[in-house]
Amino acid sequence: MSERTSIHGQWSSRLIFVLAAAGSAVGLGNIWKFPYITGEYGGGAFVLVYLLCIALIGLPVMMVEILLGRRGRQSPINTMKTLAKEEGTTQAWSWIGWSGVISGFLILSFYSVIAGWALAYVIEAASGTFNGISAEQVGELFGDHVSSWPKLLAWHTLFILMTVFVVARGVRAGLEKAVTWLMPLLLGLLLILVGYSIAEGDFASGVAFLFSPDFDKVFYTCTTVAGAESCVFNGEPLLTAMGHAFFTLSLGMGAIMVYGSYMPKKNSITGSALLIVAMDTAVALLAGLAIFPLVFANGLEPGAGPGLIFQTLPIAFGAMTGGQLFGTLFFLLLVFAAWTSSISLVEPAVAWLVENRGIKRLHAAASIGFGCWLIGLGTVFSFNLWSGEAWQVGGKTFFDMLDYLTANILLPVGGLAMAIFTGWFASRRMSESELLLSEPWFSIWWFVVRFITPIGVLIVFLHAVGVV
Ligand code: TRP
C-alpha cells in the first residue's frame, strides 16, 4: 500500500501529537465534570468503575481511533469510507464519522457555556472577589452568576469565537504552540491546590470518599416501606461512569481519529495512547483530591451538581496566601484546557467540509461555530429561564439531556462501532501494520478489542436499560 498523506498537514513530532491529543482529552471533563459526577454518585465505587472503564474500554478504543485515523489520513467520515472500501466491507461504516460530527456539535454547544463560567471566574478571581470569601457567599456568587442569562450568553459567545479563531488558523499554527507549555502549567497549579487541601482541608475524608468503594450505596437505590428495606439495582451510575470514560478521553466521535490522521507514520501508537490516558487520569484524580477535602472541611454537599468546583475552589483561593494570583491563573488555565478540547470537537466536521465541499477553513469553522452557538442557547437557559420543572423532561433540563445523550449514548455507540469495525470487519493485518506491536502484546490487544471492549460496552448498556 502506498502511504497516504493528509491534505491538512502533519504534527511536527510525536511529542506534539501526544500534547495535542492530551490537550483534547484534558479539559472540563477532568476538572469540572469528573468531581461533580463523582460527588453525585457517591464516590469510591463510582471512581473504581470509571477507572476500570478507562483501562478495559478507553485505552483499547484510544488505540483503535489513532490507528484508524493514521491509516485513513482524512476526516473521520472519509477515513471510514476509505478504510471500509480497502478492507472490502460496506461503506456504511462512514456513519461513524457522521454520528461523530453530530456529537461534536452537540457537545461543544454546552461545553462552551461551561467554559464561559470559567471565563467569568477569571475576572472574579482577578478582581479579588474571592478574598476571604465564606462557603455561603461562594454559593451565592455562583447562584447569581448562572441566574443571569445575558451574562452566560456573553461568555458563551466569547468562547465560541475563541474556538473558531484557532480552528480557522489550522491545527498546527493554531494549536502546537499553545499546548507545549499550558499543560505542564496546569499540572503545576493542580499540585499547589492539592497541597493546600492537604494542609487546610479534610484530606482524609476526601481520600476516603474518592477511594473507598461502597458498591451497595452507589449501585442500589433503597427505599424503606413499612419498616422493610427493599433495594433495586440502579444502572445509571454504571452508564455514567462508562460514558465519562469516553467523554474524558475524547473518544467515540472522531476527535482522536482526526488528530491521529496528522500523526507521523513512525510514531508508536501504543506508547502515545498510554501517555495520553495516564495524563488524563492523573489530572482527574488530582482535581478530585483538590476538591473533596475542601468540600468536607467546609460542610458542603458533594452532590451539589455542575456548580461544584465553582462553589468550592474559590474558598481555597480566598484563604491562601497569593490566592488572588493562583485563583486567576487556575481559572485561566481551566479556560485554556477547555479551549484545547473544544478545538478537537469541531476539527472532524471542519476537515470534512474542507475535503468535500472545498470550503475555506475559516468559513467552515465559522458556520459550525454559529450552529453550536445557537444550540448553546438551550444550555444557557437551562440554568435560569428554563430551569423550572415545566421545562424539564424526566427531571432533566435541556443541558442534562444533551449531556446524557452525548456522553452516555452517542460516544459509547461510536466507540463500540469503531472497535467492531477494527476487530471484526477489517483485517488483522491492517491493525498489525499500524501498531507494530511485538507478541504477545498484539494478540492481547486484538483479543481485548474483539471481545472485552464490545462486550463490556454492551453489558453496561443492558444494565442501564434494566435487562441484566
Ligand atoms: N475530553 C474533553 C474533556 O474531558 C472533552 C472533549 C474534547 C471531547 N473533544 C471531545 C469529548 C470529543 C468527547 C469527544 O473535557
Query: For this structure, what is the CATH homologous superfamily?
Result: Amino acid/polyamine transporter I
Structural class call reads: mainly alpha
Instruction: Label the overall shape.
Output: globular
Helical amount: over 70%
User: The CATH topology, please?
Assistant: Amino acid/polyamine transporter I
Q: How much strand content do the residues show?
A: under 5%
How many discrete domains? 1
Unique bound compounds: tryptophan
Biggest sheet details: 2 strands, antiparallel
Order of helices and strands: HHHHHHHHHHEEHHHHHHHHH
Which sequence of strands runs across the widest sheet? 1-2
**CATH level-1 class:** Mainly Alpha
Number of helices: 19
How does CATH name the architecture?
Up-down Bundle
Give the N-terminus to C-terminus distance in angstroms: 45 Å
Which stretches are poorly predicted, pLDDT < 50 over at least 5 residues? none
Total E-strand runs: 2
Mean pLDDT rating: 90
Rg, rounded, reads 22 Å
Helix and strand topology:
Layout (H helix, E strand, L loop, with lengths): L13 H12 L2 H13 L3 H29 L3 H11 L8 H32 L8 H13 L1 H21 L1 H30 L2 H9 L3 H5 E6 L2 E6 L2 H13 L6 H6 L8 H29 L10 H12 L3 H35 L3 H22 L15 H28 L2 H8 L5 H24 L4
Helix pairs in contact: 1-8, 1-13, 1-15, 2-11, 2-13, 3-4, 3-9, 3-11, 3-13, 3-17, 3-19, 4-5, 5-7, 5-15, 5-16, 5-17, 6-14, 7-8, 7-15, 7-16, 8-13, 8-15, 9-13, 11-17, 11-19, 13-14, 14-15, 15-16, 17-19
